[in-house]
Amino acid sequence: MEKTVSRIFCERERETLSPYAFLTENTRGRDHPCTPCPNRTDFQRDRDRILHSKAFRRLVHKTQVFLFPVDEHYRTRMTHTLEVTQIARIIARALMLNEDLCEAAALGHDLGHTPFGHAGETVMQQCYSPEFTHYKQSLRVVEKLENDGAGLNLTWEVRDGIVNHTGDHLASTLEGVIVKFADRIAYINHDIDDACRAGIMSIEDIPVDIREVLGEQHGVRINRMVSSVIEGSTDSPVIRMTPELGEATNKLRKFLFDNVYYSPIAKAEEVKAMELLARLYEYFIRYPQKMPQVYYRNLETDPVERCVCDYISSMTDRYAIDLYKDLFVPNVWRTPN
Predict the structure, then answer these.
(1) Contact yes or no for 298/230 (Cβ under 8 A)
(2) Among 219, 214, 217, 220, which Cα is nearest to 250's?
(3) Cα-based distances in Å from 110 to 123, 161, 227, 317
């Protein structure tokens, strides 16, 4: 039997990747078996399913740090995702791990983020459930909400990487753990860049001891952090940074929380955004039939609160603002022609 391209890829993985790499042929598979693709491995196929999803396209209009920025040079959830993906691929390639698995999990890691970033996440925790998190919602998006309610039917390992990319969670594969490190490296550095652009801080505000270790320039910091992960993880069953760089990175992250993420400039419109989402949530709890069919029909199996949370979480910043205006802001009356 003639070998397919996907089979050749799997053989190549077996021959060239690190003994610590997760081989595509060892996947636990999908919840719903499907015919293998002759030209792509399972993880490559997952990558493409995420890239072509509506949830992925919506990331371009979702907040990263600065709410609904007019300046097009500020990061959005989409640009963040692309930066995470590229960093993850660089690390995986250097460590001879499964780059395709890294790429797929990185592309899908933030699909469940609410509009207005973590402010929206806080609203869902207040209105829907304290257990709501964007990473659990990302898993729900790929398992149930995407593809007109059928889900994307991704492999177990990609879903594991998505839901375990943050906090104290660790993915079951080294590739999934790489996504966690890449996420942190990406947002620490691009948030500094955006904060300087917004006038919240300057590079000189970062403590000197941190700058001496990590560097003064954006590219230098990223390169040193990435190199630290590669150096600390080479020929190892664990993904980690070298001690000095790891400590400096944690200090820099704390500096950002203390001086940027809770800055009055960054949070200037946050209260309004949170009130907007809370009112939308209350409205659709009362009138769930006015939600799009893809969310409304889930009332057959899920509580109304769950369905409304899914709808609110799916919104982009712009969509939420426009919908609020349509529902609650009266139009100016004009004499008919």
Answers:
(1) no
(2) 214
(3) 17, 11, 24, 15
Architecture per CATH, domain 5-261, reads as Orthogonal Bundle (1.10)
Distance CA 154, CA 22 (A): 16
Angle (nearest 5°) at CA 273 between 271 and 277: 115
| CA atoms within a 13 Å half-sphere pointing along the CA-CB vector of 300 | 6
Burial of 32: CB neighbours in 10 Å, binned 0-12, 13-18, 19+: exposed
Please say if the pLDDT value at position 1 is more than 60: no
Predicted confidence at residue 219, as pLDDT, reads 95
Question: pLDDT band at 260, cuts 50/70/90?
Answer: confident
Q: In sequence order, what are the beta bridge partners of 76?
A: 63
Indicate the SS3 state at residue 76.
strand
Which pTM does this prediction carry? 0.94
Judge whether 187 and 176 are in contact, CB under 8 Å.
no
Which residues, other chains included, contact 278 with Cβ-Cβ below 8 Å and sequence gap of 6+?
123, 126, 127
Range in 9-23, 121-135, 190-204 with the lowest mean pLDDT: 190-204
Q: If we measure between CA atoms, which residue out of 153, 186, 176, 143 comes closest to residue 302?
A: 143
CB 218 within 8 A of CB 191: no
Integer Cα distance of 217 and 52 in angstroms: 34
Contact 306, 128 (CB under 8 A): yes
| 306 backbone dihedrals φ, ψ, rounded to 5° | -65, -45
Q: Per-residue DSSP letters for 78-118?
A: HHHHHHHHHHHHHHHHHTT--HHHHHHHHHHTTTTPPTTHH
Instruction: Round to whole Å and give the CA distance between 143 and 149.
Output: 9
**Domain boundaries in the chain?**
5-261
Instruction: Give dist(CA 30, CA 34) in Å, integer.
Output: 8
Locate 105 and state its tokens. 């999990």
